[in-house]
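User: I'll paste a sequence; please echo it back and then give the predicted structure.

Assistant: Echoing your sequence first, then the prediction.
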Amino acid sequence: MTYLLLATAAFLVTHFLPSTPLRPKLVAAIGEWPYRGLYSAVAFVTLGWMIWAYSAAPREPLWAGLRRVPEIVMPVALVLLACGFCAIRPSSAPIGSLRATSPHAAMCARCCSSAHSSSSPRWGRY
């Protein structure tokens, strides 16, 4: 777990540094394209480190007693989602766009589908 925290911190720091006054100094010293290449390489390495640390982290169930909840809730979420995309509101938006669908059933479906990931031992990873 320590490696995951370190990798995430390194990833965040490498993404925070370009917003500081350090970026123009680095670009002036090595050039725009070498800076972009170096930044991309560092970001790729820290992302790889974070992925490796995540896969090596111990698996701990979040809510071990609620493993059967998605089997009950997800069919309801599917029906609500389908109703949300099929119901048309009276508006000037074209049919099929997100503005033309009823947001209430779709929002309920999104809330119900959170039961799927919350009962998983690794947030959606079985």
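The radius of gyration is 22 Å. DSSP finds five helices and no strands in the chain.
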